[in-house]
TrEMBL record:
<dbReference type="InterPro" id="IPR050693">
    <property type="entry name" value="Hsp70_NEF-Inhibitors"/>
</dbReference>
<dbReference type="GO" id="GO:0015031">
    <property type="term" value="P:protein transport"/>
</dbReference>
<keyword id="KW-0813">Transport</keyword>
<protein>
    <submittedName>
        <fullName>SIL1 factor</fullName>
    </submittedName>
</protein>
<keyword id="KW-0256">Endoplasmic reticulum</keyword>
<feature type="region of interest" description="Disordered">
    <location>
        <begin position="1"/>
        <end position="41"/>
    </location>
</feature>
<keyword id="KW-0653">Protein transport</keyword>
<dbReference type="GO" id="GO:0000774">
    <property type="term" value="F:adenyl-nucleotide exchange factor activity"/>
</dbReference>
<feature type="compositionally biased region" description="Basic and acidic residues">
    <location>
        <begin position="15"/>
        <end position="35"/>
    </location>
</feature>
<dbReference type="GO" id="GO:0005783">
    <property type="term" value="C:endoplasmic reticulum"/>
</dbReference>
Length: 145
């Protein structure tokens, strides 16, 4: 049997029957989904028949125009971001390493760290605990790659 939208439906496990309760009009919790949507949207007319085809065409044309404008702006931005512009914004890794060495900080790339971990693992002087630790650390770096 069809049940009105917003009704409370349950399956009675003792009898095996499905039961439905019609919503109370005074109780706000039992409002139908449509009524809750109308309350949320307020006085906005969301009826699908309220828009004419001309209104929809105009709205679509506005959307297409704004999309073209966004594409044009993003193209101009990409055009400004030339290789020379990027070189001005970012410094090479070698220069950064030199600056950090002046601060008594040594910066290593992931590749350099991975090479050290592999050599530690292959070293006969390393203990079993050091080799296991090197494998765990290596797993972390390989997972990033």
């Amino acid at each position: 049997q069809a049940v009105p939208a917003g009704s409370h439906v349950r399956l009675n496990l003792h009898t095996g029957e499905r039961e439905a309760k019609l919503p109370d009009r005074e109780n706000a919790e039992s409002d139908t989904r449509e009524e809750r949507r109308k309350k949320r949207l307020g006085k906005v007319d969301v009826d699908a028949n309220s828009f004419t085809s001309e209104e929809l065409k105009k709205a679509l044309a506005k959307m297409k125009a704004s999309e073209k404008a966004e594409r044009k702006v993003s193209f101009l931005f990409l055009k400004q971001c030339t290789v020379q512009g990027l070189k001005k914004k970012f410094r090479p890794i070698e220069q950064l390493k030199e600056e950090f060495e002046k601060l008594n900080m040594k910066i290593e790339t992931d590749y350099e760290i991975m090479v050290k971990l592999i050599s530690k693992f292959n070293s006969s002087a390393s203990t079993l605990e050091e080799k296991v630790a090197a494998l765990y650390d290596l797993e972390y770096y390989v997972h990033q790659v």
